[in-house]
Design brief:
CATH class of the largest domain: Mainly Alpha
Strand content: 5-15%
Number of domains: 2
Number of helices: 20
Strand order of the largest sheet: 4-6-7
CATH superfamily of the largest domain: Fumarase/aspartase (Central domain)
Helix content: 55-70%
CATH topology of the largest domain: Fumarase C, Chain A, domain 2
Structural class: mainly alpha
Radius of gyration: 26 Å
Shape: elongated
């Protein structure tokens, strides 16, 4: 599958198709024309001797130092080398590819002033599956991650190519490519803007969207196993709160549970259920609403020009403008907000699975094994979920409220949006595990009731899991089964 960007509004799903599913990417004719015109403006600026930040000046606090034309290419190369100082564990392959996608989207507007050749080289990295090795730490929102990607363009550093880690220069040669020689402004454009936080946030949105659907499924399984009172999800009641997300979750829960013989027999067994059960439409729905908000913010930034400076106008009537579009405040806030929403999805799921293992409230064998005592059953799985929820509480602390002064007082307010996106990805990774644990425990609980008593939707979810994880009769190694449950969820229909 080949995607053509440049004429239509992009969405986070477009980035995911390339980053995670290896769709090929190219740009439209009009996008190439815009890029070429922007580059011609930069060449005009250089030829005219007009002083423009980052084109023929130093960077950051060195912006008042002007440079002769013969040093501008060296400035770009030096920018990549000096800014590539990230530390820590490497980003995953899909994360680097997502960042590359967001950078290409930014350049497609033609306002950065980079050359057609530069964008072609970036596309070649994607389409030839050459993935730069990029340390995950060291960004205040921009600069370091893209600098490491830029190194691969010039044949410096290591890349993943054909499932091996090799020198960038070697991978380029094997793919029939040559190292790129950046021209005026291109080094700055490569490290600037918000592609890091945008690309990473697109992946987080993909995870979050699927987790929100799975939360309804695993929650419905727990609800049925605990003989919940279905009236709490009544359509007329749910409609009295005009939350779009709440309507979606309410409808999904009703669809999953409305034909349950077990719940039909359970009407009136208690006046009302615990909030972790009866408030699922409200909590899952609120998280869906925050997801929608975050998606709008990320899509807006994905379609924005986020370089500094920007080149505007035509070759005959141009402007070069220093501004602050690389400041990623909206994406940082969106990632922080979505982190809180997804932490809540994990938190309420942990409360449900805690009820499943407690015979005082579940009406089921302790820890969901027929012979508790000699068997510990699902006791410690709940511990794990609690631990992950505790970690998520830490990860949900806002990154955007932090701030530091960099570049000799030039950059004295930072979004820290890349850090916000990275911790969001870690948090949603934890939620996959929490929901997988609920999936396992709820399935085990439903087995005690028998398939004939179950709603069709929950029964199908149970059968999908039972195809790879058997019912527990006695204790066995649980960790691999949690991992298998995660894979069922990631690869299955929710």
């Amino acid at each position: 599958m080949t995607l053509v960007w440049g004429d239509e509004t992009l969405t986070w799903q477009d980035v995911v198709q390339v980053a995670r599913h290896n769709a090929e990417l190219t740009l439209s004719t009009s996008a190439w024309q815009r890029i070429a015109q922007g580059r011609e403006i930069v060449e005009q600026i250089v030829a005219s001797g007009h002083i423009a930040y980052g084109i023929n000046t130093g960077l950051g606090a060195l912006c008042n130092i002007t440079l002769p034309e013969e040093q501008l290419s060296q400035l770009s190369r030096n920018t990549l080398l000096s800014h590539a100082c990230g530390v820590g564990p490497l980003l995953a392959r899909e994360q680097v590819r997502a960042i590359l996608c967001a950078a290409i989207a930014n350049y497609s507007h033609g306002k950065s002033g980079v050359s057609v050749a530069l964008v072609q080289h970036l596309l070649a990295l994607l389409n030839h599956q050459i993935t730069p090795q990029v340390p995950s730490q060291g960004s205040v929102g921009y600069l370091s991650h893209m600098a490491h990607i830029g190194l691969a363009l010039i044949g410096v550093g290591d890349v993943e190519y054909q499932q091996q880690i090799v020198p960038a220069e070697q991978a380029l040669a094997q793919a029939g490519l040559t190292p790129y020689r950046p021209g005026a402004k291109e080094g700055l454009s490569l490290v600037n803007g918000t592609p890091c936080m945008i690309g990473l946030s697109c992946l987080a949105l993909d995870d979050a969207m699927r987790l929100l659907d799975w939360a309804d499924v695993t929650g419905a399984m727990s609800f049925e196993a605990l003989r919940g009172q279905l009236v709490a999800f009544d359509a007329e009641v749910i409609a009295l709160k005009a939350s779009p997300g709440m309507q979606v979750s309410g409808q999904r829960l009703r669809q999953l549970l409305s034909d349950s013989p077990l719940l039909a027999k359970s009407v009136g067994v208690r006046t009302q259920d615990a909030l972790s059960l009866r408030s699922m439409p409200q909590v899952h729905g609120a998280s869906r609403d925050q997801f929608d908000h975050a998606a709008r913010q990320v899509n807006t930034e994905l379609n924005a020009c986020t370089d500094n400076p920007l080149v505007l106008g035509t070759v005959d009537n141009w402007r070069v403008v220093s501004q602050a579009n690389p400041h990623g405040e909206s994406v940082a806030m969106a990632a922080d907000l979505l982190a809180i929403a997804m932490a809540e999805i994990g938190s309420i799921a942990e409360r449900r699975l805690d009820r499943l293992v407690n015979p005082l409230v579940s009406g089921l064998p302790a820890f969901l094994v027929a012979q508790p005592g000699v068997n510990s059953g699902m006791m410690i799985a709940q511990y794990v979920a609690a631990s992950l929820c505790a970690e998520n509480r830490q990860l949900a602390q806002p990154a955007v409220l932090d701030n530091y002064v960099t570049s000799g007082l030039q950059e004295d307010h930072l979004s820290l949006g890349t850090g916000a996106a990275l911790k969001l990805l870690k948090l949603v990774g934890n939620v996959w595990q929490i929901l997988a644990i609920e999936y396992l425990l709820a399935a085990q609980a439903l087995d005690f009731h028998g398939e004939a008593e179950l709603a069709e939707g929950t029964k199908q979810a149970l059968l999908r899991l039972r195809a790879v994880v058997a019912n527990w009769q006695e204790d066995r190694w649980l960790a691999p089964e949690i991992a298998r449950a995660v894979e069922v969820m990631k690869n299955g229909v929710s």
